What we know:
It is a single chain. The chain is an alpha/beta fold and 252 residues long. It has one domain: NAD(P)-binding Rossmann-like Domain (Rossmann fold). It contains 9 helices and 7 strands; from the N terminus they run αβαβαβαβαβαβαααβ. Strand 2, helix 3 and strand 3 form a beta-alpha-beta unit. The radius of gyration is 18 Å and the shape is globular.
Amino acid sequence: MSSATVVSTALHEPELLGQTVVVIGGSSGIGLETARRARAEGAKVILTARNPERLRQAASEVEAQSTAAFDASDPFAIERFSGDLPVIDHVMVTAGRPYYGRLVEMDFAKVRDLVGQHLVQALYVARNSINKVRPGGTLIFMGGTSARRPAIGLSIASAMTAALPALTASLALEIEPVRVNLVAAGFVDTPLSAELLGDQLEKRRTQLRTTLPIGRVVGPADVAALAVHIMTNTALTGATYDIDGGQQFVAA
């Protein structure tokens, strides 16, 4: 290591020092890893999640400034939570899950709920952030890349994949100077992925390791690093950032 590298590392200033980051869905996976990364960059973090016990554990791990346990698909809960917030800098929304299933087998009540989680939730978070997020701060939503390629059983996931970038771009114009961005991930090795795949998880990991151009599986830390970059780079708004290790380009 050169002396210049040593000096550069020693002089690195935390990029989120003095800022406050809210993570909605921050008790595990991508949300928790984003909170860890934000804390490492000097931010104060506020966590929310549905499960109070997991939320307490996560909050202890990242020394969260405060927490709130509620269902992020409930617009009234989002409104109450936002009303109690101080002025903040960034909001990362990771709550929610995808829906997979053939048309003839669809649970339409569940479909309505999940569509609401992804679209209406984003609208409520955006509206309630207008007077809470400082100018130049950002809202970051989560989308995906794996459903861009049509397939049986992906109709709902494909619709959400197409809708979220358009919503993000429009919101970026409507609530500026608050920035709005979308992180579109492929498979990420999280507890949710483990829950969805069950005993097929290791098979999926092996498949991705052998087919992805990066030669490994994308993890929560990869997504968290991108999220924090979006927070710190104030030129970024209205855009969708893919992070899937090249999954959308190969038969993975």
